[in-house]
UniProtKB/TrEMBL annotation:
Descriptive protein name: Ferrochelatase
CDD domains listed in its UniProt record: Ferrochelatase_C (cd00419), Ferrochelatase_N (cd03411)
Gene name linked to the record: hemH
Job description of the protein: Catalyzes the ferrous insertion into protoporphyrin IX.
Organism name: Rhizobium miluonense
Pathway note: Porphyrin-containing compound metabolism; protoheme biosynthesis; protoheme from protoporphyrin-IX: step 1/1
Length: 344
């Protein structure tokens, strides 16, 4: 444990009142890269009304008529290029499980705290893990959607799913949901360290650093989703921490899906335009992703790199996510301890 983290005292009321569960929840992942695993996963994902807010009569014919017939094959191929072959699973799953195991070790001073993990889509499900924590005696659960920047499509849908499970329970555990930590000092410092450490391994330096966040449709922002503002704040704090000018650092948005306008500037277009305009060396990081996944390893480290080179760029580097690193775990531990204190 690092010195600046607040420790719960042994006299903490949760010791007296029973066990507390900590449930880390990430987005999800298919069980395999084959057509039926991919289809099952995408179906669960893309029927979530927090993700696609179109009315069902408009969306379902497109989803079941086109998307679920073509996308599983295409995305399955992309997953194959980034699959963790040793564990036969996606890296998102590997990192989330590691984060849970490491969190349990870091909270050993709190023997009444149990740590577990779940996925919003796919396995292990939120409902199963809430039940398991309750069966293990947890009367309180800290529900931690692993997204530094709140969005309805990510944080809120994790909360919704947990409360859907609670609705079916006779004896519900008490739940604390973890809010965004987009401007947390430990988080910004961890990101800055990851940039500096990565760049120190290179024999060249980027002209521009791009902080690429997952996008959301512009219409969600106009309806009041705060996600864009949280991303901008993370970007500004990181730029300041790195001591970079506005010319040397950019915030962009990736993973556009469908015909609507999404948050801009788009990462893919930016990378292409920078290369065409003569920028030779860039670095890209993904501060909004707690773990590397398809969107970072394939869309950025593979596709964006290829596009940069194809359009005249010379050097491209992808800075890995915080994953299960020491710095990354410091961030998650700090957030969890802060929330546990709410019950003190
Ligand atoms: C179509 C709407 C989508 C919205 C809105 C959206 C928001 C959103 N997503 C993440 C994080 C991740 N998304 C990932 C994959 C992914 N995202 C969408 C669609 C939307 N996401 C799709 C269809 C997919 C699957 C891949 C594909 O078909 O292109 C992942 C990767 C999961 C993995 O297993 O690797 C993450 C992580 C955030 C943070 C976000 C809004 C803020
Ligand atoms: Fe997504
Ligand atoms: Fe993508």
């Amino acid at each position: 444990m690092t010195a600046d983290l607040t420790t719960l005292s042994p006299g903490h009321p949760s010791v007296k009142y029973g066990k507390v569960g900590v449930l880390l929840v990430n987005l999800g992942t298919p069980d395999g890269t084959d057509y039926s695993s991919m289809r099952r996963y995408l179906r669960e994902f893309l029927t979530d009304r927090r993700v696609i807010e179109w009315s069902r009569w408009k969306w379902y014919p497109i989803l079941f008529g086109i998307v679920l017939n073509t996308r599983p094959q295409k995305v399955g191929k992309a997953y194959e290029t980034i699959w963790n072959k040793e564990k036969n699973e996606s890296y998102l799953r590997t990192y989330t499980r590691n984060q849970s195991d490491l969190m349990a070790e870091r909270l050993r001073d709190l023997p009444n705290v149990k740590v577990d993990w779940a996925m919003r889509y796919g396995q292990p499900s939120i409902a199963d893990r809430i039940q398991a924590l309750k069966d293990d005696g947890c009367e309180r659960i800290v529900l931690f959607p692993l997204y530094p920047q709140y969005a309805a499509a990510t944080t809120a849908t994790v909360n919704d799913k947990a409360f859907e499970k609670l609705q079916k329970m006779r004896w519900q555990p008490a739940i604390r949901t973890v809010p965004q930590y987009h401007d947390d000092e430990t988080y910004i410092e961890a990101l800055a360290n990851s940039v500096n450490r990565h760049l120190s391994t290179l024999d060249w330096q980027p002209e521009k650093i791009i902080a690429s966040f997952h996008g959301i449709p512009m219409s969600y922002f106009k309806l009041g989703d705060p996600y864009y503002c949280f991303c901008q704040k993370t970007g500004r704090l990181l730029r300041e921490k790195l001591g970079l000018s506005e010319d040397q650092f950019m915030v962009t948005f990736q993973s556009r899906f469908g015909p609507e306008e999404w948050l801009q500037p788009y990462t893919d277009k930016t990378v292409e335009e920078l290369a065409r305009a003569g920028t030779k060396r860039i670095a890209v990081l993904n501060p909004g992703f707690v773990s590397d996944c398809l969107e970072t390893l394939e869309e950025i480290a593979e596709q964006a790199a290829e596009s940069f080179h194809h359009n005249g760029g010379d050097k491209f580097t992808h800075i890995p996510c915080l994953n299960d690193s020491e710095d990354g775990m410091n961030v998650l531990e700090k957030v969890v301890r802060r929330e546990l204190l709410g019950w003190a």
